[in-house]
Design a protein that fits this description.
about 350 residues; alpha/beta; Rossmann fold; Dihydrodipicolinate Reductase, domain 2; 2 domains; 6-stranded parallel beta sheet; globular
Amino acid sequence: MKNKIKVAVLGSTGYVGMELVKILLNHSYVDINFLGSETAHGRYLNNIDNTKEYNHLPLLKPNDSFNTDDSDYVFLALPHAVSNKFVKKYFNKINIIDLSADFRLDDFDVYKENYGNEHECKEHLKNFIYGLAEINREKIENSKNIAIPGCYPTSILLPLIPLIKNKLINTKNIIIDSKSGYSGAGKKFDFNKMKSKNDYNFYNYNTNNHRHIAEIKQELNKYSSENEVKFSFNPHILPNFRGMISTIYCDLNNSIKKTDVINLFKELQKINPFLKYIDNDETLDFFSVQNSNYCKIKIFNHHSEDKIIIVSAIDNLIKGAAGQAVQCFNISENIEETVSLV
């Protein structure tokens, strides 16, 4: 049995940070020895969330009081354009798993266009592995610096990259329609946007202009041997707290059948414990993935045989953030991938 690995979580009182703590608390190889918070330091996490499983955790301290000498890993559950300030201090001193967007993009000009120019160590962009576990497993092994993908990209890239890599779909006109629970917007989200006195709301936003488009485009293009992958992306917010579903409309390449796509996903799930292809009447909805690290995929018929409809479902806080971070941690440490996640 491995010795306990000492880990710190900065930003531990946000939605993702608290999910991270819950997962790491149940990890047989982990000892949480530092919890950081900008807003709640001087308190205990169980006093904030009123959850018994948070008992016996360290007192919350300011994020910037963390000392890298005390831990083996630091998980950064911090906002975009904030996380990089900590990476500048910690780089090469500790293993870093970053859940912000600060190190997902390879090109600083693309980052600046989407997130602004507040990046204090752009020279380290090339030193982070993109932590899409099912796709980059070999690169993640023994990696010191991992950037966890965004939730929308995770739900989209997991089904699309294998299809593009195996040349099963046309890359010129992919349509992506995604719907997320409001937790993806963080604790500062104004729930008044979702509920009136009489009803709940539902709306799309940043159609074809969302910041995650750059991340999706970057990763898809790495696997396309043809021209740049062309897609439309329309994200929506639902009045649900957690969950994400992406519906993807694709044109099959010549001579490719729907069964070829299905067979590929059936093979992939044999070697990927958190990838599940649904080939029966099981409903693919938020309830089927909430509080889990699974990405579930289902293929639906189109009236045209040269097209398919893919539905991909994840929990945006788990597989789209905290769960995938722990999955990458397990892979990096050569621990069984499913530890603390099933």
